[in-house]
Amino acid sequence: MLIFAGDAFDATEDYRRLKSLLIDFFRGPTVSNIRLAGLEYVLHFTALNGKIYFRSLQLKKSGCRTPRIELEEMGPSLDLVVRRTHLASDDLYKLSMKMPKALKPKKKKNISHDTFGTTYGRIHMQKQDLSKLQTRKMKGLKKRPKMKRN
Predict the structure, then answer these.
(1) Distances 43 to 56, 67, 78, 108 between C-alpha atoms, Å
(2) 64: which DSSP letter?
(3) How far apart are the first and last CA of the chain?
(4) What is the pTM for the complete model shown?
């Protein structure tokens, strides 16, 4: 899990692009929900007074059902300073951030999902001729030849 603390990551362009670089470098699988029992390592970046503090933390395990949320510092801890920056032009930056059309997910037409996650699909068919529709044959509905009267 990556945590970015500090207003500088959203305020200045240098820190915003540095945050993007760090996310690309340390990116793992993207998840929608976090289960505390499955969380083991946290990378924490703090921007404060012109410095960036990088800390790697480990979640302590608890033996009971409710997880104890206590982080213990482990591994490398770095104090970084942004000294020299030479950013690309905004046009070049936008061009580099552009996603190719092949990687974009295609929208699936005529497919919908309900609140329970059930997938529904809509199909389109030509209009059916109901006179040619095969139905159940019953003796009472069978057409009889007309009897001739004398």
Answers:
(1) 5, 19, 11, 36
(2) S
(3) 97
(4) 0.58
Type of residue numbered 141: L
Q: What are the DSSP E strand ranges found in 1-150? A: 2-5, 41-48, 51-59, 71-81, 111-113, 119-121
Beta-carbon count within 10 A of 8 CB: 21
pLDDT in tens, 8-39: 888 888 899 899 889 989 888 888 887 776 77
The residue whose two tokens read 């945590």 is 3
CA distance 52 to 85: 15
Give Cα 91 to chain centroid, integer Å: 27
pLDDT over 80 (residue 68): no
User: Among all chains, which residue has been given the structure tokens 């919908």?
Assistant: 112
Neighbour-count burial for 105-140, b at 16+ CB within 10 Å, e otherwise: eeeeeeeeeeeeeeeeeeeeeeeeeeeeeeeeeeee
Q: How would you list the strands of the sheet with 71-81, edge to edge?
A: 2-5, 41-48, 51-59, 71-81
Q: What is the mean pLDDT of the chain?
A: 82
Instruction: Say how far apart CA 106 and CA 99 lie, in whole Å.
Output: 13
